[in-house]
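Rather than argue in generalities, we have chosen a single entry, letters for residues, whole numbers for local backbone shapes, without further comment.
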Amino acid sequence: MSSSPVLLCTNDDGIHAPGLALLTEVAASIGSVWVVAPDRQQSATSHALTLHRPLRLTEAANQRYTVDGTPTDCVLLALRQLLDPAPDFVLSGINHGPNMGEDVLYSGTVAAAMEATILGVPAVAVSFTGQDPEDLQSYGALLGTIVSSLLERDSLPPETFLNINLPARPAHDIKGVEVTALGRRVYHDSLTRSEDPRGNDYFWIGGGRSDWSGPQDSDFRAVQAGYVSVTPLHLDLTNYDLLSEVRSWSLGK
């Protein structure tokens, strides 16, 4: 690792998000920072790529760019068009809201870290589970320690990135950092059907309530107990325990 590492910051809440501003400050205390982020809100875009229209990469300031696309687009353009050689690390976040359990399948924040991993650059996704901006700001020093520790490792295991969730409390009140597994979340009443002034139906996704479940080392349990949750995520979704059984099904014969 070089004496002054190069860090790429991105997010899914957009270039003006307070979480991205804090993450950029943390990165600047460690090394040289590039920011490439969506020009607008891109939450829940998952790992989408923009394929059916051209993308525009706009310089907003020195080493700071916006993209009129998804977080995945941002990382792809940054690593393939802007930064040569590649950065030492990609930091995605800080997301305004949790990314635990099944959230990681929808999250643009997580997808940006995943894209970096696919392209061979170690990455971490960071989310804040609360809403208080002062609590969010209090995590700067802790995140700096975590990122510095990761940089000292020089790399992460192949096809692996980290998903970090910060509890909804100030940093001085946390109980510590726990390595966790993904929990499970079931949403209820998250689809609302209504009618516009012309009598046409429309649907709104979001809201409602959710129920969590999972073992004692689940991410949501750690966060609820006041710990920072760190979950190693792997690109390979294969269920290896079922390979032999599914082969025995003689599918297509």
Summary: Residues 140-152 form the longest helix (13 residues). The helical segments are 18-28, 71-82, 103-106, 108-118, 133-137, 140-152, 219-224, 243-247. Residues 6-183+214-247 form a domain with the Stationary-phase Survival Protein Sure Homolog; Chain: A, fold (CATH 3.40.1210.10). The first strand starts at residue 6 and ends at 10.
